[in-house]
Design brief:
This protein has about 260 residues and is an alpha/beta fold. The mean pLDDT is about 95. It binds zinc ion (ZN) (2 copies).
Length: about 260
């Protein structure tokens, strides 16, 4: 009973064999998936939504502009996201946030796009999916200034430390742990996963990126979320099945799904 709360099924590496990918996910115990829509222009806004519509009994979608593409967010794209955000399959806005590691978009553009998407999420009353890399203070500052706590959401692919997770949780943002937690050198992420309150913990693959150990280096897919769940349970000294169930229920609550 697993919920992959963040993957990119519209990525060609998964989409080209989507039926097989979804079949393997089911065999591995994945009961629900949220596929993240990262638009880079108006035409690409619905790519995740289209997948969710075809599998509406277990796949939901999000819509947003990744910080890498923040420079593309003009008025037309903003309007398209606001409209798509009202679709019944859309459970959150994002991923948005700040990536000061790659700096694929200028930092000012990233901050503007982040603020704009928080405003859309508040307007639509949907939670936010936050991507943050090498910008912990700035991310928390924008969330505070824009009162993102009104809607809350998820810090996805958690790669910070336990104090960051606690500060985010104070603002209404739970943490979603990816395959990073299975990497032996990720001591701080493991410590954060250990200390995270049980009702504020999610699990994701971020597929096709970041396959967990022992699949590290391969193309990731939702079925591998089981490896990450197992490792988190180990770190917390919990039974893998009950951890899977609690994190599944958390995701249902945060995405406001019926189950
Ligand atoms: Zn991300
Ligand atoms: Zn992502």
């Amino acid at each position: 009973m697993l919920f992959d709360t963040h993957c990119h099924l519209d990525d060609p590496r998964l989409h080209q064999e989507l039926d097989a990918v979804l079949e393997r996910a089911k065999e591995a115990g994945v009961r629900r998936i949220t596929t993240i829509g990262c638009a880079h222009d108006v035409a690409s806004v619905s790519s995740a939504i289209d997948i969710a519509h075809r599998h509406s009994d277990w796949i939901s979608a999000t819509v947003g502009v990744h910080p890498h593409d923040a420079k593309e967010l003009d008025d037309a794209l903003c309007d398209a996201i606001r409209t798509a955000g009202t679709d019944s399959s859309v459970v959150a806005i994002g991923e948005t946030g700040l990536d000061f590691h790659y700096d694929h978009s200028p930092r000012d553009a990233q901050i503007d796009a982040f603020r704009m998407q928080i405003a859309i999420a508040k307007e639509l009353k949907k939670p936010l999916i936050i991507h943050t890399r090498s910008a912990p203070e700035e991310t928390l500052r924008v969330l505070r200034e824009e009162r993102a706590s009104d809607v809350g959401g998820i810090i996805h692919c958690f790669s910070e430390d336990a104090p960051f997770a606690a500060a985010a949780l104070d603002l209404g943002f739970v943490s979603s742990f990816s395959g990073i937690v299975t990497f032996s050198k990720a001591i701080e992420v493991q410590e954060a996963a250990r200390r995270q309150p049980a009702d504020a913990l999610l699990i994701e693959t971020d597929a096709p990126y970041l396959a967990p150990s022992p699949k590290r280096g391969k193309r990731n897919e939702p079925a591998y979320v089981a490896h990450t769940a197992k490792r988190i349970a180990e770190l917390r000294g919990e039974d893998p099945e009950s951890l899977a169930e609690v994190s599944y229920d958390n995701a249902i609550r945060i995405f406001r799904l019926q189950d």
